[in-house]
Amino acid sequence: MDLLDLARAALLGILQGLTEFLPVSSTAHLLIAENLIGYEDPNNAFAIMIQLGSILAVMWLYRQRIFDVVTGLPTKPEARRFALMLFLAFLPAVVIGLFAADYVKTVLQESVSVIAWALLIGGVAMLILEKFRPTPEVTDAAETPIWRAVAVGFAQCVAMIPGVSRSGATIYGGLLLGLDRRAAAEFSFFLAMPTMVAAFVYDFIKVKDHITADQTAEIAVGFVFAFLSAWFVVKPFLEYVTRVGFGPFAWYRIAAGAVLLGALAMGWL
Prior knowledge:
mainly alpha; 77% helix; 0% strand; globular
């Protein structure tokens, strides 16, 4: 077992957890980081598996909400409405993902220029939304009207383009549809649960036979660090965007996209 590979796995796990729920694209960061540090990830098995750590972290943080909804389904209308809202918002990603998954993984994720432009354009879009977004009408993510939830679900599908960011797409969609900053971010977390679990199961079935014994140790390390870093960042992120907004993340995206385009122009990537 190579300690250097375990250290790389830990670094990538931290990066995955920190960026998964921020509107900066964890996929873009992982793909670029793996390239920069020379980490070999056949069939993207490592990246796919450690995402589960991030998913479980946010589920742990919202465990009381999940418990209340699950136990309340037989008797509480609000629990049934919440579950229906998430299910309908989740459906567009299922339908479109089944048709587009292979193209995304074999074509778009192989293009650094696509990632760079997606980061840059997404950052500009975020700045525009911060300045001209509609007056918020929804302040509690759990009370999001069904039609708005479904529209956010369609917005989430744009994140199949690497560099867009799943959380970014759902947050932008939420802001456009009248959710306030906190509600948009929290709805993004709720929608991430079924979306990312389904994506994990789908991808795991495809790569499980390609995971080697050495990779298992690296995945375990990456998983733990992804869980811990996601657990650490989610709540502070909510508090931060409620007070400050998404402007700093927008400028970060623009800078990151510009750096990647510059590196491509110089032949460094």
